[in-house]
Each structure stands twice: as structure tokens, then as C-alpha cells.
Amino acid sequence: MDIPEKNFEQVFDNLLSFLKEKLGDTKIDFASPPSKLEGGNETSIFHFKLRAVQPSRSKPLVLRQFRKEHRPNHAIMEKIVHNSLVDQGFPVPYVHYSCTNNRYLGSQFLIMDFLPGEKLPLVLGPDTDIVLGKTHAAPHNANAKRLMKDMIAEGFGWRQYIIEDKLNLLGKASESLPWLEEIVRWLIENRPSE
Predict the structure, then answer these.
(1) 107-110, long-range: CB within 8 Å, 24+ apart, which pairs?
(2) CA–CA separation, 138 vs 158, rounded Å?
(3) Residue 64, SS3?
(4) Is residue 81 part of a domain?
(5) Which domain covers residue 77, as residue numbers?
(6) Cα–Cα distance, 30 to 50 (Å, whole number)
(7) Model confidence pLDDT, tens digit, residues 7-36
(8) Is 31 inside any structural domain?
(9) Residue 175 lies in a domain
């Protein structure tokens, strides 16, 4: 997703307005204005830093703005997942704010910690596939009951997250996306446990 460059200034003014409201402080400003980060298949991602805020908010932050077509409350759900994983000791960014009100940026967004690191093309090497595999597998060790409890505490119904409902959703999606049919059939035949 790309925000047209001519709209950056308005988006950043609105982001600052949101933060001033949330933090109850009109003196907040950018120490480093938002700058676009590479990546973000389903979001526009910006790196920024605030000034005139408490120390915990003065570290580098990230704005992730979702596409307009995301389901309602998607930003809240992502915040819950991120912060549940942080609480379980996973190296993911803590999400400070989620916003589902389109009046600020035109779509849902998150404001989260910036985790420094190298761009993937710069660290590719002979063990890249092993590192990527371990990195992608690690979240599967998360405590799913804890995550479900966090979701329910925030008002998401437990049935939204059980495997049966996910498979049904995939089945419906494959009706309009024929390339999914074989994958969905395989997944149902090799159904994972709850």
C-alpha cells in the first residue's frame, strides 16, 4: 500500500493530532518526522521519533497504516497478538496504540516500537534458510490459550479463532479464488489440531 507523496504532510499532521489527543499534550512534536520504510505488503510503514514526551515514548517508533479494505477492528486484533507475544518473551515490537477510526489517517493503523535490524538482502548467506525457518517456526511455540484469553478479554469472540471457522473461511475464499482450492483441500485433509 502506498500513500501518495503529496498526502504525506496531511497524514503526518493527522498522526500528530492523534498522538496529542491520546497523550493529552499539545506540545508533542516530531523529533524526526515520519520517513517511509521499505516493505509492508499490506501496510504503509513509516519510522519516526517524538520530542516533548515522556522517555518511554521518545524512542524510535513505527506507524503501520493498513489498507482501507481490512476487516473492522483489524488493528486492535494485531495489537493484541503483538503484545501477547511480547508478554510471552518473543522478539516482536510492542504496540502502543491501535486506531480503527478512519478520521485520522483514512484507515486503521498501529503505532509500535521500532526494532532495529538489517535488511534481509544484506544478511543473506548459506544459513539464511535455516534462520528464516526457525524465525517463522518460533511463534508456533506461543501459548495459544494465553493469546485466546487476551483476545476474549478485548471482546473478540472465541469462535472467530478456532480452526473450524478458519477452514470454513478458507473454503469460502477458494470459491472465488480457484488457485486456493487444492491448498484448502490439502489443509482440510491434514487438519492441524486446535
Answers:
(1) 107/65, 107/66, 107/67, 107/68, 107/70, 108/65, 108/66, 108/70, 108/74, 108/75, 109/63, 109/64, 109/65, 109/66, 109/75, 110/62, 110/63, 110/64, 110/75, 110/78, 110/79, 110/82
(2) 23
(3) strand
(4) yes
(5) 5-121
(6) 4
(7) 667 778 899 999 999 988 888 889 998 988
(8) yes
(9) no
The verdict on pTM exceeding 0.85 is: no
Spacing of C-alpha 43 from chain mean position: 8
Q: Does the residue 182 lie in any domain?
A: no
Residue closest to 61 by CA, chosen among 41, 33, 42: 33
The answer to whether 40 touches 61, Cβ cutoff 8 Å, is no
| Confidence band, pLDDT 50/70/90 cuts, at residue 112 | very high
**Number of domains, the chain:** 1
61-66/109-113 β-pairing: antiparallel
CATH number, position 111:
3.30.200.20
Cell readout for 184 is 484448502
pLDDT surpassing 70 at residue 105: yes
